[in-house]
C-alpha cells in the first residue's frame, strides 16, 4: 500500500535520474507514450510483466512495482475546472466544441458515445514553417445505446 | 440582434427540413464538418461570404445570416461538469489523461501549450470488425511561453 | 424542434388522460418499463417505428413523435446533488457503497467499468411480510481498460 | 480511536498479504461480499463477534477490531461528483435514469422511497458470448410517506 | 399538469382570500398543520378524499385538486445553503448540533438513522415570561442498518 | 491552545475508556445530553466549574479542561451538504419542510425567527410496537424582527 | 400574491416619479432610511398602518400595500459571493475582519452572537477635508449561548 | 518565513499566558482593538516599531515580530459562506441589507463605494435594561467611480 | 426602470444600425473607448449630459438615456469562472500572475491595493512584424491600508 | 523533485536574507520584474543558465536551481474567486470590464483572443500629486480564430 502521489513522485525522480523520456520508456515497454505517462500518474494499470520491466528500467523497488498492477482510483486533478493552461485548453475545447462534437458523432454514428475505456490517445509533433503543431488523436470505440 | 439559442434553433430546423447533414453542408461551404457544427452552435464566426452561402443553402433569413459574422460569446454548456454522456467522456479523458498529456507535451515541446485558437478538430469513423471507432483529431499550434 | 421539457409534459399529460401505466405502455411497445419512462423524460431514443407506435398509443402529434427519434441531451436533473428523497437515495448509495462497489468490481472483473450505455435497468416489487421491497437491477457490460 | 483511512489501509494491507478476496472473506463471515467491502471502507458496522472473526481472518490488531463495531461517519468520497470512471457511471445512471426511476417507483408503490438503510446490494458476474456483464442488485424496503 | 410553483401560488391566494390559517385548515382536514403547509408547497401528497376536501375548503379548481394527489418532486429550496434567516437557523442547528446528534442517536439506538419518511413534525408556541418560544418536534422511526 | 479535533479525540477516547455514555456524563454534570455531546465536539462552551468537573469525570489533562471554557469556532461539518445518512436526514427535513415551517412560524408568531442561540435540543427514544422512534425537540426563543 | 421583484420594481418606479429620496420617505414614515430601503427590497415587513401610509406617499395600488405586510423570503442576492463592488466590500470586510471581530465580541461579551434580528443599521455621511466617509453602524442585541 | 496560522497560534498563546485582553494591548500600542485583533489573525501589517513593541508586550520571538511587518495574504476564512454563528450573522446582514445599503449609499453619495482599505472598524458594548448590545461601526472613505 | 440586458441590447442594436465603432462614439463623447463599452454593458454611469449626448448619437429613447445616469448593479458575467476564451484569458492571467503581481505591488508600494474604482483601462493595437499585439493598460490609484 | 510551495518558500527566504528586491534581481538576470516574481511562485520556467544565475544571486542549492527549469503546474491560487484584496481587484476588473474588453478587442482585432502565453506583463509606479498610481501593462499577441 503506497499512496498514488508517492508512487508518481518516485517514478518521476527515477526517470529524471536515468535521463529517460516517456518515448524511450514506451519503446522499451512496447506501449504508447501517453499510456506510459498515464501509468506514472496512476491512471493506468500495468500487467505484472510490464510493471516488472518498468521496475528494471527505472530501478524502483518491488513495492512500487506491485502497486502499478492494481486498478487505481482514477481522475485526481486538483480542481473541477483545471487551471494549468495546458490542461485548461482541453476544458476550453470541451466547452467550445462539446455540443458540435456531440452533434457530429450522433449524426455519423447514431445515438451513443465514444468510449473512454476502449480508448487510446496519442500525441504527435508536426513541424510546420510557422511553428510546431501538437496533434492529438483520440481513438475510442463507438458504443451505441442499448435498448431493452 | 438575435440570441444565440434562437439562431441555433433556426439553423437546426432549417437543416432538418432540407434533410442535410453537417458533412454535406461542410462540403458545399468548403469547410470542416466540426467547424460547421460549431457555427450552428455559435462557437465560430463566418465571413460574410460564408454566412451568405450558408443562408442560401439553408434558406434562412438575412438577420440570422448577419449574426453569424459576429464574434460570439463562446462556451455555454449548461454545467461546469457536463452531464450528457457523449460530452462527459471528454471531461473524463481530461481528468484521467490531463496530467499525462501535459507531461508528454512539455517533454516533447518544452514549456508551452497547445493553442485552442489556432486549432482545428475533426472526427472520423473507422470501421473495425469489432465495431466502429470514433477517431477525433485535435490539431493546435504549439505556443511556447514567452519570457520578457 | 420541441424542447425536452415540453415533450415530457405532453407525454405525461397524454398518459394521464389515457389512464395508462408505464408497465402497460411498455408491454404494448415490447420494451422495458424503465426504458419507456426514460423515453418520456428524453433520456432514451426511439426508433421511428417505436416512436410512431407510442404516438398512436398516446395520441400525440407528429412533431413530438419525430423528436423522440433524435438523440437527446441527456442528464438534466436540477441539482448536482439531487434533493428529491427518492432520487437522493441513489446518491446516498453511491456515496456509501461507491468505493466498496469499485473494489468488488475490480476484484471480480479486473481493471475496467460497468458500461452505462450497453446497459439496462429494471425495477421489481417484491412483497414481503414486513412490507414491499423495491428491487432494482442494473445490468451493464463490463468494459476492460484497453492498453495501447 | 483510529481514523477511518488508517483502518481501511490496514485492512487492505492485511487482505493483500493473506491473499484473500472479498468473496472468500464474506464466505468465512457469512455475510455478503459488498457488505464486507463496505466494512473495509468504514461504511458498515460489525457486531463484536463479526469484528473479532474478521480480526482473526486477517490477523489485525485489537484496536482495529474494536473500531469496526462503532457506527462510522459514512459517505466520504473525495468529490461531490465522483471522477473515478467506475464510480462515475453510477452517477451517470442517476442523472440519466433518476427521474424515470422515480416515476416508476411512484407508479408501482405510491408516494415513498426505496430505503438505503433497510437495504442490501450485490454484484454478480454474468458471462455472455459478447463479454462479461456486471449485474448489480439494489434491494431496499419501500417506505411510504407517513401522514400525520 | 400544473407546475408546482403555480399550485402553491393558487393555494396561498385562496387561503388568503378565505382568511384561513393553516391551523384552521388542518383541523378541518383532520391533519397536522405542518403537513398541510407541506401540501401547499407540494412537499406532501394528499389522498383523493383529502384533496377534494381541501378543494372545497379553499374553492380551488379540479385541476389543482388532482395535482395534489400526485407524488411531487420534493425539496426545492432556491439555494444549497438557505439564506432566509428562518430557514437558515435549521441549517445552523445542523452545522452546530449535527455531529452531537449523530453521536447521541448512535449511542441510544445503535447504528441507524431517524427516518425522514416515516416521520412527522409539529410546531408549538410556548408562552414564557421572557417571551414566546418556538418548540418543534421531529418524530421519525428509527431505522437500523440492515446487514446481509 | 489545542486544536478542536484533538480535543474531541481525547474526550471521546477517555469516555470510551471510562465506559460512560453521554447520558451518564450529562447526569453527573447536571446538563442535557445533547449539550454534553456538543461540548465534546467543541460546539458549546463550559463554565470553569463544568470543565473542571468533566475533567475529573473523564480524567483528562488541565490543558483540555481549559480549552473547553473558550468560545469555539462553531459549525465544522466536512461538507456543505452533509453526506452521512444520519445527518443528511436533517438536511432533507430542511429541504422538504423548510418552507412549510417558515410559513407556520410566521403565521403563528409573526415576522421573526426561532433563535438557534437561546435554544436547546433534546432527543428521546419512544418505544412503539412497530419499532423505536427518535423524537427530537428543538426549543428556541422566538425573536421578532425589530424595526427602527 | 405579487412576486418580490415586481413589488420592488413598482416601488422604485413610484419613488423615482415622485422624486423622493429614502431619507424623505423615512422621515414621513418615522422609520430609519435603511429600514425603508429594506422594505423596498422586500427584506422587511411593514405594519398595516405603515404600508398604507407608504402607499399614500408613493401612490401605489392596494395589492402592493398588502404584500408589504407579509413576512418575506429574505436574502436574495444573485450570487453567494456578491460581485457588485459596493456590496462586495462588505464581504471583504467579513473575510478580512470576521475572525478578529469574533475574537473581540467573545472577549467583550462572552460566548454568544450579535443578533441580526433584534438589530438596526444606519448609514451616515461624514464630510472630511480629504473627502466624504461612509459611516455604517450595526447595532444588534448580544445573545449569549444558552445552556441546558 | 513563518506561516500565518503558526503566528496566530503563537500570539494567542502568549496573550493568554500574559492574561491580556485585546483592549489592553491596543491601549499599550495606541491602536484600535479590532485592528490589533486583525494583526493577530495576519489581516493587518504593523510598522517595525509597532511589531517590536507588540513583541515586548507579549514576549514573542524576533522571527514572529519580523513577520508582522510584511503584507499578508488576507481573507482566509475556511468557507465561502462562514458557518460560525458569530461570523455568519455578518453574512446574513449582507444578504438581507446588501441591496438596501447599496441603494442608500448610491443615493447619498452618488456612484461609488465605501472603501475597505481606507477603512476602520470598531466594536462597542452598550448596556441596556433588556441586555447588552453589540454596536459595530464601519467607517470607510467614499470612493467615487472615476471616468476617463 | 428598464432592465440592464434590455438597455445593452437596445444600445448595441442602435450602434450597429448607425455603423459606429466604440472608438468613434468615444471620440464624440470625449471619453475612453473601454469606458464607453462599459457604459453599453451597464458597468459605468453617465452624467446627464453624457447620457443625453449618447442618446442623440445613437438615436435611442429618453427612458434608456435616463437609465444610463443611475448607478448600476455591476459585475454580471454568467459564470464565476468565465468560459468565453477572450475573457477567460484574463482569469488565467489572474491565476498565473496574481501572486507575483501582489508581491511586486507590495514591494513597490507597501501594504495596500490598486483601486478598481479610481481606475481606468485602455486597449491599444500594436502592429508587429509577427502579428498584431493587444496592449491593455490598467491604471489605478494605489490605496495604502489605513491603520487606526 | 521539490514541491512548488517548498521552492517558493526557499526562494523568498533567500531573497529576504540577501535583502534584494524583485527589481534588483530582475536587473541582474536581464528579465522583467513580474516574470522574476512569477518564477519565484513557480509560474514561469527558467533556462538552465537563468536558473544557475539566480541560484548564485540568492545562494540556493542545486536541487532548487534544477526545479526552476521544469515546466510547472501553473495557476494554484487557493480559491476560485481570490479573496486577498490585492488579487481580488483583478477579478473585479474582469467582472466589471470583461464584456466591454471583449467587445473592444473583437471590434479592433476581429474574432480572436489576446494570448496569455505569448504575453508579458509589467507594473510601474506613477507618482501623481494626489498619490501614487499602479500602472499595469498586459501585452499579448492577438491570436485570430483559425478556420478549417
Write out key terms for the chains shown.
globular, homodecamer, 434 Repressor (Amino-terminal Domain), 148 residues, 18% strand, 2 strands, Cyanate Lyase, Chain: A, domain 2, alpha+beta, 3 domains
What top-tier CATH class of the largest domain in chain A fits best? Mainly Alpha
User: Biggest sheet of chain A: strands side by side, in what order?
Assistant: 1-2
Low-confidence stretches of chain A: none
Q: Nearest-angstrom radius of gyration of chain A?
A: 18 Å
Q: Approximately how much helix is present in the residues of chain A?
A: 40-55%
User: Structurally, how many domains make up the residues of chain A?
Assistant: 3
- The helix count of chain A comes to 6
SSE-based structural type of chain A: alpha+beta
Overall, the morphology of chain A is globular
* Strand proportion of chain A: 15-25%
What is the terminal separation of chain A in angstroms?
42 Å
Write down the secondary-structure element order of chain A: HHHHHHEE
Fold-level CATH name of the largest domain in chain A: 434 Repressor (Amino-terminal Domain)
Amino acid at each position: 500500500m503506497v499512496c498514488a502521489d508517492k508512487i508518481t513522485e518516485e517514478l518521476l525522480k527515477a526517470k529524471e535520474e536515468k535521463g529517460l523520456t516517456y518515448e524511450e520508456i514506451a519503446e522499451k515497454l512496447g506501449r504508447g507514450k501517453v499510456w506510459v505517462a498515464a501509468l506514472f500518474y496512476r491512471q493506468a494499470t500495468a500487467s505484472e510483466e510490464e510493471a516488472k520491466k518498468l521496475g528494471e528500467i527505472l530501478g524502483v523497488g518491488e513495492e512500487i512495482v506491485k502497486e502499478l498492477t492494481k486498478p487505481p482510483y482514477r481522475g485526481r486533478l486538483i480542481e473541477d475546472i483545471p487551471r494549468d493552461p495546458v490542461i485548461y485548453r482541453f476544458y476550453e475545447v470541451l466547452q467550445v466544441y462539446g455540443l458540435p462534437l456531440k452533434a457530429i458523432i450522433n449524426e455519423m454514428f447514431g445515438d451513443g458515445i465514444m468510449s473512454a475505456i476502449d480508448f487510446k490517445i496519442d500525441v504527435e509533433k508536426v513541424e510546420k514553417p510557422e511553428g510546431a503543431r501538437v496533434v492529438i488523436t483520440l481513438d475510442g470505440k463507438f458504443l451505441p445505446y442499448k435498448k431493452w
